[in-house]
Write a structure and sequence with these properties.
single chain; mainly alpha; two-stranded antiparallel sheet; disordered N terminus
Length: 558
């Protein structure tokens, strides 16, 4: 046998060896994560799970499977890269096998341990690991330790972990022995190269969660149901911990401000007050309107629509005579009702504005911090509930975006309706990259208003999404194309400015149709107040080269 044949034989044997080891590791980890998810469903979500449609049940496990593959791909991508470099050398491959043995054991142990942690976290908090997981770091370590000893089966848990690891080790040895004997590996050079390329692409695809979608699989996609307990079962322990770690890292440390400090600041502003308690401290800042006897006994439904990128700057280009009707169906209401032009958005981003609207806090990361459960004084949801309202949040996106599924509950919303529920109620729905189109958001909002059987007035807050990059005109839009002259096209740094304007017009038109529907309803026209505003100005317009337009940067209509 020639040295070339020996080398080739060694390469193919190494390839078979590494394929068997990697495939075994992937299958073992998938089994661990599947059993962990199944345990959570059976232990904490079985009753709700049984009420879900088959498609939702399937989506829970299939989406969970995709997240599992994503984590496994991240764990083993370094080993795949090293293996490819070592295949041709028996000496190098021998060193790789030693490294892989240690690394693989550590990877399986990590995935197994986090599966257990996630299970008991779920048991305690009715959700997967979130940013609150790190709150224990701010507590008394001794108290935390005693709590763990008292509330969790530490001894039996450790015994169970040992037994589980032994079972995993046994299953691993049996499976790798079987795969090494029966795994078919290519022998021809072209086939070997093809296999290696497929493995590389598969690893990239699994790590992204997709090969063809614009966006990789991430937390905002972990939503298949309007029942949160189902959605909480989707992420595995490792990825839930990773998300929680990032949210915690991004959260700010909220400073403690004492009453005397606030009083001193007020004094400097010429506001005379007392620091006896907070109520007396803010008394000079409060203005109370006169009691309206009619509203005391006739509380209206209130619908507050936060429209994605509803920029007043865009409205300035409206010109019907030149073929640029940017209002659509909203034009009638802009004329008939109160339409204010000179308002500023609360923040310069969706989350930023929402947080300020909800609790008057200038912290765009509040929803992903460990402070979501605090009792905020200016919590508008709490204020509405105290006034006797049932509170509902309707979003065209997934409620898990930026941890809002938890944050909205902590604020006090009675009900959260998000993308999956909107899609179920509208079989012909259309969607963009970020969520369901506005037409179906407003159909769901009207349906929610119409079907409510409570004896309370409703406070419904909606969040639209269509007017968000990448811009596209939904298929249901039947309005005439807009005439956008070249000087306007050059002002906007987008590939297709015409589509940008037509998407903006679509969003306004759908809002106008929704208002018209309320006004035409005998049941709601005289007892419903509707408000709408933009969460922020349109992104990417740029004002550094247009100083005379600076005032438009934060301007939104109301």
């Amino acid at each position: 046998m020639s040295s070339q044949q020996i080398t080739r034989h060694g390469f193919l044997d190494n390839l078979r060896n590494v394929n068997a080891k990697l495939l075994t590791s992937v299958l073992i980890n998938l089994a661990i994560l599947f059993l962990a998810r199944l345990s959570i469903v059976l232990a904490f979500a079985l009753n709700v799970f049984q009420t879900q449609s088959f498609s939702q049940q399937f989506d829970l496990f299939f989406l969970g499977f995709r997240f599992d593959l994503k984590i496994i791909a991240f764990f083993y991508a370094p080993m795949i890269a090293i293996a490819l470099l070592c295949l041709a050398s028996n000496k190098a491959f021998s060193a790789f096998l030693k490294l892989f043995k240690f690394y693989n054991a550590l990877a399986i142990f990590t995935i197994f341990i986090f599966a257990i942690i996630n299970f008991f976290y779920f048991k305690t908090y009715d959700k997967c690991i979130d940013a609150f997981f790190f709150a224990a770091g701010n507590e008394d370590p001794k108290a935390v330790f005693l709590t763990i000893i008292q509330d969790y089966p530490v001894i039996t848990g450790l015994i169970g972990i040992v037994i589980g690891l032994i079972a995993i080790s046994f299953a691993y040895k049996k499976l790798i022995s079987f795969l090494y004997k029966h795994l078919i590996c290519p022998k021809r050079p072209l086939s070997v190269v093809t296999l290696i390329i497929l493995v590389i692409f598969a690893t990239i695809g699994f790590a992204r969660g997709t090969l063809f979608s614009t966006f990789p699989l991430r937390q905002m996609h972990a939503q298949v149901s309007d029942k949160q307990v189902i959605n909480y079962a989707i992420p595995n322990g490792v990825i839930a911990f990773y998300w929680a770690y990032n949210w915690n890292k991004n959260s700010i440390s909220i400073p403690v401000v004492l009453l005397p400090q606030i009083k001193a600041d007020f004094d400097n502003l010429g506001i005379k007050t007392s620091d006896k308690d907070f109520k007396t401290l803010v008394e000079p800042l409060k203005i109370t309107t006169a009691t309206n006897e009619f509203l005391v006994t006739h509380k209206p439904n209130i619908i507050f629509n936060v429209m994605e990128s509803m920029s007043y700057h865009m409205f300035t280009y409206d010109n019907v005579a030149e073929g640029r009707d940017l209002y659509g169906s909203l034009r009638q209401h802009a004329k008939e009702d109160f339409f204010f032009e000179n308002f500023l958005s609360e923040g310069n981003g969706t989350s930023d504005s929402l947080t300020r609207l909800f609790v008057s806090s200038p912290d765009l990361n509040l929803s992903t911090s460990a402070y979501t459960k605090k009792n905020y004084i200016f919590n508008i949801v709490k204020i509405m509930k105290q006034a006797g309202y049932k509170t509902i949040f309707v979003t065209a996106s997934t409620a898990s975006w930026r941890n809002y599924n938890n944050f909205l509950v902590d604020l006090g919303f009675d009900e959260i309706i998000e993308r999956s529920q909107v899609e179920r109620n509208s079989p012909n729905f259309t969607t963009g990259a970020w969520g369901v189109d506005d037409e179906f958001l407003f159909k769901q909002t009207f349906k929610t208003l119409q079907e409510d059987i409570s004896d309370k007035p409703l406070f419904i807050m909606t969040l639209s999404i269509t007017n968000h990059p990448p811009f596209r005109v939904p298929q249901g839009d039947k309005l005439e194309p807009l005439n956008i002259p070249e000087d306007i096209v050059e002002r906007f740094p987008y590939k297709d400015t015409k589509v940008l304007f037509e998407t903006f017009r679509y969003a306004n038109d759908q809002l106008g149709k929704f208002i018209s529907k309320i006004k035409a309803s005998p049941r709601f026209k005289d007892n419903t107040v509707i408000a709408a505003t933009g969460d922020h100005n349109l992104r990417g317009i740029g004002y550094s080269q247009y100083p005379k337009e600076l005032y438009l940067g934060f301007q939104v209509p109301f």
